[in-house]
Design a protein that fits this description.
This protein is mainly α. The protein folds into 2 domains: about 1-115, no CATH class; about 145-363, Farnesyl Diphosphate Synthase (Orthogonal Bundle). The protein has 18 helices and no strands. The mean pLDDT is about 85.
């Protein structure tokens, strides 16, 4: 591993070890491009998540983050803005994210190693991402613990912070894999239409893991109309985590995640069955990496169905390193053929559906 990739690998492992394990399987240079691009997004995400810093500070940093992938001069005035975020971080963001912010000046030197075509692909997505996160930072207190007004507004948020990451990854996959044939154009359109659902599934699942933590820090991502239909408030959830109403709320929320998981599974099918050996191997690597992330989502949802109240306790639903090792072994076992991967993911999804039905009947 080169010195530059040692730096990138250290930070991507510290900030998101589950994603790190998947992206490594893509092979060079795609894994490097995606790792660096993802860490830019993660930098913005850390700024947005740092709720202990005043919203104006975060809003300023995020709105002024546009065009940083091109504009080296702009970085000279932008990077000092991170000091206020770091100084006020407290426990609102974890140490891996703080470490990335502290070494951000050096990090951008690795961004400059990206080919121009990659920068042209990722810049619009990253600009959209920083704008979306800035808007959320501005409205965070207004939303507060009352919850997002509707599932629609929550999905809009999820697109601006995660769905767009799905489209960014897809555009890099497309550039590396597809050509201009008629068949590839069809696959390209399929990939681009399904990519946001992959991001939605990941973000909605991340919210599931942190419902209690988020409420305690002053923000509730559960839609307000769902809370009202169930006759409870966000404070009820963290004050009465073992209550049946709280557990049922989690199951209702999971039902909103499920269609996006199904679409994410369909998304993986785009990357298979290519005539060229080289393209087929790259498509295989992409599909394996995506499958690992979907299995991670499914495993998290399965835990939440088994113990819905764990959504209200710190890190109870967080997967550990041994969980990711198990997921990687599962992917290796089932990814010998596209058909076997399809069967496995669909059967796991069907099992989740059965679990939800049984869990709902038990209350």
């Amino acid at each position: 591993m080169t010195k530059s990739m040692e730096f990138i690998d250290r930070h991507i492992t510290a900030t998101t070890p589950t994603f790190s394990a998947s992206v490594k399987s893509l092979g060079s240079p795609l894994s490097e491009w995606i790792s660096i691009s993802y860490l830019i997004a993660r930098t913005y995400d850390a700024i947005e998540d740092c709720s202990s810093a005043d919203w104006e500070i975060r809003y300023d940093a995020l709105t002024s983050a546009k065009f940083l992938v091109w504009d080296k001069e702009k970085r000279k005035t932008w990077i000092p803005k991170l000091t206020a975020i770091i100084d006020n971080a407290g426990t609102s963001i974890h140490k891996g994210e703080i470490g990335l912010l502290k070494e951000n000046e050096e990090f951008w030197t690795y961004v400059d190693t990206l080919p121009e075509k990659v920068i042209r692909i990722i810049e619009p997505h990253l600009n959209f991402l920083s704008d979306g996160m800035a808007e959320f930072a501005r409205n965070e207190k207004k939303i507060g613990t009352a919850g997002f007004p509707t599932m629609g507004t929550l999905l809009n948020y999820c697109y601006s912070v995660a769905g767009v990451v799905g489209t960014l990854l897809t555009d890099l996959f497309v550039d590396s894999l597809f050509d201009e044939t008629q068949n590839d154009n069809h696959s390209l359109l399929q990939a681009q239409s399904l990519a946001p659902s992959f991001g939605f599934a990941k973000q909605l699942c991340n919210i599931l893991k942190n419902i209690g933590d988020d409420i305690k820090r002053g923000i509730c991502f559960i839609p307000r109309d769902l809370l009202e239909r169930e006759g409870i408030t966000s404070h009820f959830l963290i004050e009465n985590p073992e209550h049946n109403k709280s557990k049922l709320l989690v199951l209702k929320y999971i039902s909103f995640i499920m269609p996006n998981v199904l679409q994410a599974i369909e998304y993986t099918k785009v990357f298979k069955n290519f005539e060229s050996t080289n393209r087929d191997q790259l498509a295989f690597n992409i599909r394996r990496a995506l499958a690992a992330q979907i299995i991670l989502i499914i495993k998290t949802i399965k835990r939440a169905i088994e113990n819905p109240h764990h959504a209200f306790y710190e890190r109870k639903l967080q997967l550990q390193r041994e969980d990711m090792n198990e997921i990687i072994l599962t992917v290796i076992r089932v990814s010998n053929s596209s058909e076997e991967t399809d069967i496995y993911l669909r059967s796991e999804y069907a099992h989740l559906e059965i679990m939800i039905i049984k869990a709902n009947k038990s209350f």
